[in-house]
Amino acid sequence: MPNHTIPLKILMTAGEVSGDRQAAHLASEIHAQDSSVLLYGTGGEMMRRAGVDIAVQTSQYGSVGVQESLRFVKPLRKTLRLIRHLVTEQRPDIAVLIDNEGFNGVLARFLAREQIPFIYYFPPQVWLWGEWRARRIARQAKLIIPAFSPEAEIYRREGGRVEWFGHPLLDIVRLTADPEQSFRMNGLTPSRRTVGILPGSRFQEIEELCDPILGAVRIFLRRYPDLQVVMPLAAPHLRGRVEEKLLRSGLSQRIRLLTENVYDCLSRCDLLLLSSGTATLEGALLGVPMVAAYRVSPVTYAIGKRLVKSRFIAMPNILLNEPVMPELIQDQVTPDALAAIGLKILSDPGRALRMTEKLRTIRGMLGSEGVLHQVAASVLQEAAVSRLIRSPEPVLSPGG
User: Is 350 found in the same domain as 202?
Assistant: First the structure.
């Protein structure tokens, strides 16, 4: 295991739940390879549990769209002031920016001015919209580590130094040795039909999607009274709002919130109703039939419709370039519409099987397992090189 006379210092910045989760997995792997490294920065509880010293909590600031992000402008300005002060007081050997273009884009300019090298992990998805954004990032970042191979080609074309190892979900979406036991431990019966609901990891998504999804669940229960419904809790700070939604819907006794062995339980679901984000890719890797929902403000949707290249909104459909899983967008997102499509899938095993078989082909498009190990090794190497360039302090070799 590497050891240094003075521990490497790595700044990690994530601005919402999905970034917090990805950063936490990377942090755990970095510490597995070098336990002496000091990790600090911004993020949430998952990063904190992974050994990152969280100076500023930012995982609650996630949003999609122009209007939706306005509510976070003031707190993010304050956060940026704090992180600038932190960087000045405790200068890192390297920074790792994770996702969240709005927050990390501004921070990247500051780091560039301060001549602090940074790696952009989960950079903006320029292959889907705004390819012009790639040039600035390519010029500023010491290294770009995208999650999808089409992104790598664009950043390289713009002159960026890019390494694509694959998508880390290949390492993250894992089942335990006995998923059925996990199912039972969560109070669920393996023989009963089960539906999973995942309205999103942002407050905005909870507000937009929770009610129509819960309305669809009520319709499901009229058809299948013994139906089991599970709902993973995306982040601790969402619990209060989620429980309030469940209580108002009258379904709090019928829906089981999951915090442990989530993938085991989702893998045994007959159907997932979910937001169009990362969860669709997780569902695809689990091979579970899904219906995706997407709803934002009319202004955001109008802008996005002009900018986004893809005709789909769910990542599995984007990757396969065909409507493998149903998508409902904007005004289409109603309890009746969600339930109608969901019931067709639940009542037609052949249709569900065909969807599952198609979704499972996505795994091969995401690279090979071992992604996190390679990303962590690359981050440590870049941090060590930056330390040597900045200061000729002796750094012992991995065996030294």
Answer: yes
Residue 44 neighbours by CB under 8 Å, 6+ apart: 14, 17, 20, 54, 57, 58, 59, 60, 235, 237
Domain that holds residue 233: 179-364
Looking up tokens 């000045």 gives 88
Query: In this structure, what is the dihedral angle of CA atoms 80, 85, 88, 90, given to the nearest 10 degrees?
Result: -100
Length of the chain in residues, anyone?
Answer: 400
Q: Which two tokens stand for residue 78?
A: 């304050």
Convert the pLDDT of each residue in 227-286 to its tens digit.
999 999 998 889 999 999 999 999 999 999 999 999 999 999 999 999 998 999 999 999
User: Residue 287 and residue 79: Cα distance in Å, rounded?
Assistant: 39
Tell me, yes or no, whether 35 and 91 share the same domain: yes
> What's phi and psi for 145, nearest 5 deg?
-120, 90
Q: How far is CA 341 from CA 87, 99, 152, 230, 251, in A?
A: 50, 32, 36, 19, 21
User: How many alpha carbons fall within 13 Å on the CB side of residue 216?
Assistant: 32
Cα-Cα end-to-end distance for the chain:
9
How confident is the model over 351-375, as pLDDT tens digits?
A: 999 999 999 999 999 999 999 999 9
In the block, residue with structure tokens 């501004």: 106
Q: Which residue has the tokens 């996990």?
A: 182
Stronger pLDDT, 61 or 125, i.e. the higher one: 125
Evaluate whether 373 touches 298 at the Cβ level (below 8 Å): no
294 within 8 A of 330, measured Cβ to Cβ: yes
Please give the Cα distance from 378 to 160 (Å, whole number). 16
The answer on 121 and 218 residing in a single domain is no
